[in-house]
Amino acid sequence: MSAEIEKTEPKKCRKFYGHGVPRVKLEDLAGKLIVVEGADGSGRSTQIARLVDWLETRGHPTVQVGLKRSSLVSKELEEAQEGNILSRTTLSLFYATDFADQLENIILPALKAGFIVLADRYIYTLMARDMVRGMDGQWLKNLYGIAPEPDAVFYLSVEPQELVQRNLAKNATLDYWESGMDLGLSRDMFDSFLKYQTSMQSAFKKLQKTYGFQIVDANRPVGSITKELRKKIRALLSENKN
Question: Where do the domains of the chain lie, and which CATH numbers do they carry?
Answer without folding.
Answer: 17-162+211-241 (3.40.50.300)
